[in-house]
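for the recovery benchmark. tokens below, seq after
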């Protein structure tokens, strides 16, 4: 017995030494990151925090606090940028085209689209590091059908990447509840209420609907529409909080950051604090646990039908977890998962990894699957045109889709799903008329280690070539809900 106790002690000590060594090495390595700027370090004290501020006294109170946040942002950030940097490619430079204040509408803030007579209401939740702008095109679809649209800015977003160091999942959850009540109060009782979520906003939407099942004070959505929902992320995200062991020291303050990059994107942070990743990981674990306890037939009938758009390949969230924890758990014919396949006709297909094919085959061939599965894929391996192939209850149908894979594009990406090709910032450049650089088409060629940002950040597809099909499916959902 003593032998095993001593052995256990030695193993524990060895593991502790290894852990401390890894943390120390990573902390030292983090010092190689670029220097932190004011938008990385300054804290916006007026930003909402659930633990400090308590419950929000209605949606109007949140908007008032948000105005204070942006007043503080102007005073502490925009006013502090040196004059010699005003023309730099930065969202925080006064004269830069990347500064969202230099455009007609700043979509970093909460946005309301208000019809004269609403036919329904929709609450829209953006992703991590994103802003309400990521929901803009989908929001316009709902507005065109007469919906009152509320695109909520979640705490820590739309301001500075440093604000995400302090944002917590409980903050995001706390502001969603009064926003949902507000949307429900704007429309009539019999009119439909929809929640749309993208990425981190997708898992927040799923979580909100689960909470609303057991809380009559929360309006239950009639439908969920999800884009790349973060039902699961890479397991190593659980270690993101380890930076706290040393990052409180000034010498290791960069250890808080996964990436420190120039902030030229007007509506999305490029820099990424580790704590934000940890918050999303904790949220996914919370929702997966709730879904694991979800199961009585009565509850299942009440949970809103789900329509989700997901890329088969996704470097940000785990597509397999969306299948496993959400769709296979619900497993109802009223739910549909739309998967964007890789480009099977791509001339660079021999360079692509193949493990995603196993997931696709497993889900498509699953005889216990009751939910609808639609694959947006090549008509043939020799063709770049696509179709939507749907499998439901053993029946397979096909629907033609206009458009085709752009040249040398081999897949969609996590960040591409919500944006149409004609998006001014992230589209294919067809609508820019030379007025500004399209972040969706900027793919420079030259020597390595010359650009101020990693090449893979620029080469990641930023728009959805098949957004028109996606829009038509969203419109179908809206029309089904309307009388």
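predicted aa per position
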């Amino acid at each position: 017995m003593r032998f095993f106790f001593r052995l256990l002690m030695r193993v524990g000590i060895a593991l502790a030494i290894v852990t401390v060594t890894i943390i120390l090495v990573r902390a030292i390595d983090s010092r190689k990151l670029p220097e932190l700027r004011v938008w990385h370090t300054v804290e916006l004290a007026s930003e909402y925090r659930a633990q400090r501020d308590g419950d929000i006294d209605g949606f109007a109170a949140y908007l008032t606090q948000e105005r204070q946040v942006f007043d503080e942002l102007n005073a502490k950030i925009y006013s502090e940028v040196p004059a010699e940097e005003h023309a730099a490619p930065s969202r925080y430079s006064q004269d830069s085209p990347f500064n969202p204040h230099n455009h007609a509408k700043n979509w970093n803030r909460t946005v309301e689209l208000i019809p004269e007579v609403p036919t329904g209401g929709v609450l829209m939740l953006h992703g991590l590091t994103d802003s309400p702008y990521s929901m803009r095109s989908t929001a316009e679809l709902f507005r065109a059908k007469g919906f009152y649209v509320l695109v909520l800015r979640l705490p820590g977003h739309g301001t500075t990447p440093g604000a995400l160091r302090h944002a917590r999942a409980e903050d995001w959850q706390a502001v969603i509840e009064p926003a949902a009540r507000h949307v429900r109060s704007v429309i009539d009782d019999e009119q439909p209420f929809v929640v749309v979520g993208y990425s981190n906003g997708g898992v927040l939407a799923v979580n909100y609907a689960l909470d609303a099942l057991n809380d009559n004070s929360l309006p239950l959505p009639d439908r969920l529409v999800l884009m790349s929902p973060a039902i699961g992320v890479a397991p190593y995200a659980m270690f993101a909080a380890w930076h706290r062991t040393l990052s409180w020291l000034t010498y290791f303050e960069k250890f808080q950051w996964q990436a420190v990059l120039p902030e030229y994107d007007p509506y999305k942070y490029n820099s990424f604090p580790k704590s934000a990743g940890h918050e999303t990981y904790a949220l996914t674990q919370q929702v997966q646990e709730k879904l694991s306890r979800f199961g009585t037939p009565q509850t299942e009938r009440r949970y809103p039908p789900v329509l989700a758009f997901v890329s088969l390949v996704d470097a940000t969230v785990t597509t397999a977890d969306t299948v496993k924890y959400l769709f296979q758990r619900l497993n109802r014919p009223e739910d549909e998962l739309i998967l964007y396949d890789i480009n099977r006709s791509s001339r660079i297909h021999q360079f692509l990894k193949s493990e995603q094919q196993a997931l696709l085959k497993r889900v498509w061939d699953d005889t216990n699957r009751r939910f609808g599965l639609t694959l947006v894929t090549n008509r043939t391996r020799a063709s770049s045109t696509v179709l939507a192939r749907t499998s439901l209850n053993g029946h397979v149908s096909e629907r033609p889709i206009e458009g085709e894979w752009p040249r040398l594009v081999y897949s969609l990406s996590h960040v591409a799903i919500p944006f149409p090709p004609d998006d001014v910032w992230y589209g294919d450049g067809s609508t820019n008329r030379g007025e500004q650089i399209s972040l969706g088409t900027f793919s420079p060629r030259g020597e390595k280690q010359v650009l101020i940002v990693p090449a893979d950040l620029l080469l990641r597809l930023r728009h959805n070539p098949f957004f028109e099909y996606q829009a038509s499916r969203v419109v179908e959902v809206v029309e089904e809900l309307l009388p």
